[in-house]
Amino acid sequence: MTCSIVIRAYNESQHLGRMLEGISRQTLKDVEIILVDSGSTDSTVSIAESFGARIVRIPSDEFTFGRSLNFGVRAATQEFIVIASAHIYPVHPDWLETLLRPFEDERVALTYGKQRGPGSAKFSEKQIFHQWYPDLSKLD
Predict the structure, then answer these.
(1) Is the Cβ–Cβ distance between 10 and 39 less than 8 Å?
(2) Where are the alpha helices (DSSP H) in the chain?
(3) What is the pLDDT of residue 58?
(4) Which of 78, 63, 83 is nearest to 31 (CA)?
(5) Is the pLDDT of residue 121 over 80?
(6) Is the N end or the C end of the chain the one with fewer CB atoms within 10 Å?
């Protein structure tokens, strides 16, 4: 099973290395990393390149979430596509394998993995997170 991971980013140097290091430690090894960058001015692009990511650039004034994902998906060359934000990171080494396993059943068209938003996450990520985990003390 092969996959392309499409990551959209803008000035994510603080988080991106942790994410890409987690991807490099996955049990699934045939992974293409595509970073869709919308004009980062920090070291986001150089960090991604150091992990072998292919960079797709879009002007920041043309950014929308959907458009950036469309550019990344269009650039993907592998059998499956995983979409992730630059500030998330895999907690388990079998994250990709587990996420893609349901596709062994030809009736499956989509899978979704849980994402925990950090304190700096956007409001919508926190809302989704707190909707499912209203009592944060029970998580760990």
Answers:
(1) yes
(2) 13-24, 44-50, 65-75, 95-100, 123-132
(3) 94
(4) 78
(5) no
(6) C
